[in-house]
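Write out the bound-state structure for S-adenosylmethionine.
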Amino acid sequence: MEDLKGKAKVLSEEEKAGLEQAKFSVDEETVGTKKLFIESYGCAMNFADSEVVTSILRDEGYTTTSKEYEASLILLNTCSIRDNAEQKVRKRLALINARNRGRKGVKVGVLGCMAERLKTQLLEEEKIVDMVVGPDAYRDLPNLINEVEGGQKAVNVFLSREETYADITPVRLGSNGVTAFVSIMRGCDNMCSFCVVPYTRGRERSRSASTIIAEAQDLFDKGYREVTLLGQNVDSYKWKNESGEIETNFAQLLALVADIDPLLRVRFSTSHPKDITDEVLYTIKKYENVCNYIHLPAQSGSNRILKLMNRTYTREWYINRIDKIREILGTECGISHDMIAGFCTETEEDHQDTLSLMDYVKYDYGYMYYYSERPGTPAAKKFEDDVTLEVKKRRLDDIIQKQRVHALERNNLSLGTTQKILIEGVSKRSDDFLQGRTDDNKMVIIPKDNFKKGDYVHVKITECTSATLKGIALTEELV
Ligand code: SAM
Ligand code: SF4
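---
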């Protein structure tokens, strides 16, 4: 046992870099006697879920640690969106098992989308975990842990139509103390043919507006200055009263959160092109503290591919939404996208349609992927994954290169302008500089001076690359 303990170590920076988007629990002051190491993969919703899980386990006497070898409970909150996301988790599980299995009493659990997708397979066939818990079963964790401690394996992958964890106050993990995610809904009813989310996270349901506002108010009172409202399709948020009438839609929710305080910035993600309304755009315009930035995934610029993807909008519809954003919010509104290269049957012509859509929009930022077939999805059942990996990668590279050019072009427009940024912390490159974001979500680096996290500062933009802006504070005074 001692020997294994000696070998077990904190992840090296190299190992962490290899895990790309993973987030790790941090050392907390001891509030309980048992130690929890939780590692999260994938989207912001997953990171927000890990904070709910930590809250539930805190009530059971667990304190988080950044050291896997200290923990009696190791949890991986997983992502299934693409095959490589699952492969990364498998590699991590193998490593965790090798390092920790010799330690007495240590238990390993898989949470989230991979748990939901693979269910008992991780326990029975692969025998690599003690516990498998789907995204709607976190309240059951105390019981499941009891079962595991009693020597059994434990599973709960029940998907709920109601669970929103509305009453649970998340424990913020590795927070900068300035920005936080707030889940406003769960699941998705959209059935895009390539996507595993409706199967792993279940039906769409909205969280009560009053609990969302209470959470945002609490964050503000604790010094946070930015909340990002999260959902797979925020524009279809609806909170209904007892007679089933819509009491609060997404535009109204945005306004309610913005009304908490003008010093609280409000962001949101993700908007669906078929659902984003003019009412939402006018709400962004009306409130100075609702950020001028919209993440509007396109997935493809080809009508034929959009139809196969079951995205339920056309290129023309998408362009109309972009035109409306520009008309109501101006050219300065930041817009980002998700794009998938090499979906089933995609031709060179379809690919050129994607590139020409990008030329039309000139996105500020993009999340770009090549298609990864997911078992059980409509696309996997109906279409052949017939674009070769080589072609997928080449097309993805075209999209990435184009995005770089557009990002630089858009960032260049900021040169010489004055921007109000919210300081998030010290720059990753140097302790003498701080980093903060503009309203339209661009990262700006400024000399430290006397500013601190959570300050709003007016800066003049002096330099840029395709990824970052540099600036100088216009005044020592805070906004
Ligand atoms: N709900 C959001 C929407 O509709 O845009 C996105 C949710 S999904 C977690 C994030 C992104 O992953 C998608 O927008 C899509 O670009 C990408 N994605 C989903 N399934 C994929 C697949 N099978 N292969 C490659 N990329 C995929
Ligand atoms: Fe997946 Fe489509 Fe739902 Fe987004 S809207 S989560 S891409 S099914």
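---
The longest helix spans residues 389-412.
The mean pLDDT is 92.
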